[in-house]
């Protein structure tokens, strides 16, 4: 709520700060409105309005303030548009203050004066009504639950992100785990049939958490030769689930499976599983119909295969297998609940370290959670943000009216409580999760870029890189236990995140109640509020609503439209953008849209244009008029091979430009894209010589097809890009990558991530390589000298991937004490490699090792000494190599028995992709659990 008003105040302040001569005559009115909104903003920040959330007077006042703030932003945005449209020739070359006076000025001034007067009059009336809503609001600071730390600090030191993923909370689940393990791997002869073991319980009870623990347990995994995790969900699509099973079970790429009929896919999956003893997890099954459609591809060969199913519905569990009684996940006991709370709420994460004077109060709070893990975790995240004192904890217990009720509604008050006490600047970031379909895996990078485009992220003190501020906000939501981390980058930052379905329901309920977001689906199309500000479409049927919107004025306030993986009625979508002039965000990832309107350049307020994985053929030349655009994402839109030359005219605001092997027409000017931070993956061309060195803000650069003079130009420019920390270089037709790319003189010792694709003559001495390197990938580098000898001396290297002829020698050696920080090592398709040895104290921190399609004869003798190793993946290796790894009797079993997770797919079980000609089995080992479509 406070953020909406803050954004309105900021917008008005920006307009006033421009000292626009055009606005003489209305500037005093603007300043007066700005000051009045500042008072309302301060009032909201000083008062805990949510402590009165059940008061209808308070709700009415808050809704009126919210509408006022939105109208103020609309007026100021429209004002900017009027100014720009009045002097179109000045749009890209002159600041606002130089606009000339045109004959239409008086008409526009009169219109603006009237609009501002109306908004100001409403603002004064609403401000005066504050006493009706709250009495003597703001007169005192006696509110026991007011958050005194709502304002973001003027300058926060960057919090280091943990390198490892957050531990899964399984307190109190040990007995459950042991019982389920016996049901899955018991030796009872009657258990040879394909049994379906079901975990039942209400939302938030920990069904998925327990299933994840089972799925990742090394002992259970070794008992089965094939494993798959399928997330089904309430609104599952049979075809999508079938494609996911084909991908997870037989490593069939989605590109290949989409050309197969249902019958063909069924037959291939069944044929494969008939020869396997498999474990398949079906998470979140809601209906008998869902089970009926899935069971057809899970053959019963009387070999002890198992299906583990999680569901809220006991009828579904009984229907799936009446011989296996559902395992009902009960609530946590008192002590387990207390320990889980302390793990979240006490900085030391130990219940014994809770101050004695707080324990009684804390236990009373925990008791209200009734043993429900999600409620306890969210409560702990909330308490962690408060001062650890008896007074604060008593206020928490006394002031919050969250006595739990029966059924799934029992934690709604708890979840809402945590939302209401989020810092005001993070609330809209949480509400934005409502835009994604339930259960989505969400790209943190793209999510944060949309937050910035929406205006949720503001510079903080001297910390002006908005992406870093947004990353802190996301980490803070994790800190509050409102968001789950699915996967982190190697450097520790969040890569993929997810929101629990109950918290997702909360975000939708709050977002729609505030008219922050309208979620259009087949269930609620008719319930749309008037003039929505953001629209999200969650299924194909809901797109019929687009035609209805076009015939009304309901789009006049629309700022955001999001359609994710919508396949139908895109012709309506292509015409939809014409009359929505205030759009800031268009995200139509995965739709079948084929074109954008030629006049899309009229959307001068557009900040984010997400066209990832679409069928768009080309971008209109008018895109160059989108001078406020911050992100242009056309990645994996395979038909877009060339961008128009007008891209160079976007100038100062464009921050991220991503595609897949695209070129850009024309040549950059001397002022082209100075604030561009991301450019990938662009074709190397003459623009490198004229424009790259001007892109001084670049942090991530990906260039392909680099040849000839472009190679020299690129090398020359790299030394001038002071902020560059990620570089991908893919060689051109000559197939050569200069060895000097690894020299510190090219990167000023700041480069952290480097990907090289193409023949590399050799490696420089380690003293010449950037000491800052943390991640290194070589592909088709054709090195003849053992790269491990030199790379092992890089003190900060954490990830090393050698792929597809990166090394063409017969032997590699990890030298003594080499790779002191290495955590991930991948050896993939090194087709000459026969011998590999590991000397003493090498790779002391290695956690993941992947060996794929290499002619190695055996594992290194020194592998048992790498005691840090947690995960071994062996893919596409010959039968003799795999036989050596068999439990107990394999010749190399002693080398790997200390590793908790071992996954082996022999060469005869690996599918080759006819589209790419590369082994695709490794995709089945993605860290992402569930359907692996990444949204955002």
From TrEMBL:
Residue ranges of domain Disease resistance protein winged helix in the record: 435-506
GO terms for MF: ADP binding
Cellular localisation: Cytoplasm
Pfam families listed in its UniProt record: LRR_14, NB-ARC, Rx_N, WHD_DRP
All copies of domain Disease resistance N-terminal, residue ranges: 4-71
UniProt entry tagged with the keyword Flavoprotein: no
Domain Disease resistance R13L4/SHOC-2-like LRR: 575-874
UniProt keyword annotations, A-Z: Cytoplasm, Hypersensitive response, Leucine-rich repeat, Nucleotide-binding, Plant defense, Repeat
Ranges where the NB-ARC domain occurs: 179-349
GO biological processes: defense response to bacterium; innate immune response-activating signaling pathway; plant-type hypersensitive response
InterPro entries named among the record's database cross-references: Apaf_helical, Disease_R_plants, LRR_dom_sf, LRR_R13L4/SHOC2-like, NB-ARC, P-loop_NTPase, RX-like_CC, Rx_N
Function: Confers resistance to late blight (Phytophthora infestans) races carrying the avirulence gene Avr1. Resistance proteins guard the plant against pathogens that contain an appropriate avirulence protein via an indirect interaction with this avirulence protein. That triggers a defense system including the hypersensitive response, which restricts the pathogen growth.
Family membership noted in the UniProt record: Belongs to the disease resistance NB-LRR family.
PANTHER family (UniProt xref): AAA+ ATPASE DOMAIN-CONTAINING PROTEIN (PTHR23155:SF1152), DISEASE RESISTANCE PROTEIN RP (PTHR23155)
The protein's name: Probable disease resistance protein RF9
Organism: Dioscorea cayennensis subsp. rotundata
């Amino acid at each position: 709520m406070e953020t909406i008003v803050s954004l309105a105040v900021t917008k008005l302040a920006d307009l006033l700060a421009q000292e626009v001569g055009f606005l003489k005559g209305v500037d005093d009115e603007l300043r007066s409105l700005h000051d009045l909104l500042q008072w309302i903003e301060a009032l909201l920040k000083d008062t805990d309005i949510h402590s009165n959330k059940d008061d209808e007077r308070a709700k009415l006042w808050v809704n009126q303030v919210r509408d006022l703030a939105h109208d103020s932003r609309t007026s100021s945005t429209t004002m900017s548009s009027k100014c720009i449209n009045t002097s179109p020739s000045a749009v890209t070359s002159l600041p606002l203050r130089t606009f000339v006076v045109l004959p239409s000025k008086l008409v526009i001034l009169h219109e603006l004066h009237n609009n501002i007067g109306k908004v100001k009059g409403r603002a004064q009336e609403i401000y005066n009504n504050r006493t009706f809503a709250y009495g003597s609001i703001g007169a005192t600071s006696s509110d026991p639950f007011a958050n005194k730390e709502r304002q973001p600090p003027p300058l926060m030191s960057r919090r280091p992100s943990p390198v490892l993923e957050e531990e899964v909370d399984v307190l109190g689940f040990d007995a459950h785990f042991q019982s389920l393990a016996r049901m899955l791997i018991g030796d009872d002869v009657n258990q040879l049939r394909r049994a379906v073991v079901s975990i039942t319980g209400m939302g938030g009870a920990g069904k998925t958490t327990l299933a994840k623990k089972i799925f990742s347990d090394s002992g259970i995994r070794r008992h089965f030769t094939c494993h798959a995790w399928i997330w089904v969900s309430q609104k599952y699509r049979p075809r999508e689930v079938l494609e996911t099973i084909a991908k997870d079970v037989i490593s069939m790429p989605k590109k290949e499976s989409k050309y197969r009929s249902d019958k063909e896919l069924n037959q291939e999956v069944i044929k494969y599983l008939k020869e396997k003893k498999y474990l398949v997890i079906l998470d979140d099954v809601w209906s008998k119909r869902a089970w009926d459609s899935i069971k057809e591809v899970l053959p019963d060969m009387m070999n002890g295969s198992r299906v583990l199913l999680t569901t809220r519905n006991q009828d579904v569990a009984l229907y799936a297998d009446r011989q296996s009684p559902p395992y009902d996940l009960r609530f946590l006991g008192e002590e387990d609940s207390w320990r889980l709370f302390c793990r979240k709420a006490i900085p030391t994460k130990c219940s014994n370290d809770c101050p004695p004077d707080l324990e009684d109060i804390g236990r009373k709070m925990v008791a209200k959670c009734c043993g429900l893990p999600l409620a306890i975790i969210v409560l702990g995240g909330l308490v962690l943000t408060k001062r650890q004192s008896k007074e604060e904890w008593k206020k928490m217990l006394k002031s919050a009216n969250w006595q739990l009720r029966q059924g799934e509604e029992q934690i709604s008050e708890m979840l809402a409580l945590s939302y209401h006490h989020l810092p005001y600047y993070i609330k809209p970031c949480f509400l934005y999760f409502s835009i994604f379909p339930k259960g989505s895996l969400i790209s943190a990078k793209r999510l944060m870029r949309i937050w910035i485009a929406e205006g949720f992220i503001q510079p903080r003190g001297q910390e002006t890189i908005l992406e870093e501020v947004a990353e802190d906000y996301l980490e803070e939501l994790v800190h509050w236990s409102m968001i789950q981390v699915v996967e982190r980058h190697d450097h520790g930052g969040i890569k993929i995140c997810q929101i629990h379905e109950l918290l997702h329901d909360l975000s939708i309920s709050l977002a729609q109640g505030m008219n922050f977001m309208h979620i259009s689906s087949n269930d609620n199309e008719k319930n749309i509020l008037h003039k929505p500000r953001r629209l999200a479409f969650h299924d194909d049927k809901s797109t019929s609503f687009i035609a209805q919107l076009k015939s009304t004025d309901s789009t006049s306030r629309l700022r955001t439209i999001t359609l994710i993986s919508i396949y139908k009625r895109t012709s309506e979508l292509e015409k939809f953008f014409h009359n929505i002039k205030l759009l800031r965000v268009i995200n139509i990832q995965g739709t079948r849209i084929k074109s954008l309107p030629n006049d899309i350049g009229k959307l001068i307020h557009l900040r984010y244009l997400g066209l990832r994985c679409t069928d768009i053929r080309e971008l209109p030349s008018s895109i160059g008029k989108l001078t406020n655009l911050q992100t242009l994402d056309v990645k994996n839109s395979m038909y877009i091979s060339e961008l128009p030359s007008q891209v160079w005219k976007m100038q100062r605001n464009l921050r991220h430009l991503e595609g897949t092997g695209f070129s850009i027409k024309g040549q950059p000017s001397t002022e082209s894209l100075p604030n561009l931070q991301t450019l990938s993956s662009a074709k190397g061309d003459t623009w490198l010589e004229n424009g790259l060195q001007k892109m001084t803000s670049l942090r991530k650069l990906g260039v392909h097809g680099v040849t000839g003079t472009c190679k020299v130009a690129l090398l020359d420019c790299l030394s001038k890009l002071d902020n560059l920390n990620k570089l991908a270089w893919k060689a051109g037709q000559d197939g050569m990558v200069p060895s000097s790319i690894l020299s510190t003189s090219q990167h000023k010792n700041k480069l952290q991530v480097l990907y090289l694709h193409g023949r590399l003559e050799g490696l420089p001495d380690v003293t010449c390589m950037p000491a800052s390197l943390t991640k290194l990938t070589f592909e088709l580098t054709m090195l003849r000298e053992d790269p491990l000898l030199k790379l092992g001396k890089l003190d900060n290297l954490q990830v090393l991937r050698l792929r597809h002829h990166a090394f063409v020698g017969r032997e590699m050696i990890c030298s003594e004490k080499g790779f002191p920080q290495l955590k991930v090592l991948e050896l993939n398709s090194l087709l000459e490699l026969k011998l590999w040895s590991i000397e003493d104290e090498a790779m002391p921190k290695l956690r993941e090792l992947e060996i794929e399609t290499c002619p190695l004869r055996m594992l290194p003798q020194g592998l048992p000494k790498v005691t840090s190793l947690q995960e071994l993946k062996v893919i596409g290796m010959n039968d003799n190599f795999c036989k050596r790894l068999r439990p107990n009797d394999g010749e190399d079993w002693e080398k790997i028995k200390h590793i908790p997770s071992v996954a082996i797919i022999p060469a005869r079980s690996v599918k080759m992709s006819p589209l790419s000609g590369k082994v695709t089995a490794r995709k089945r080992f993605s860290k992402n659990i569930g359907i692996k479509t990444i949204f955002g």
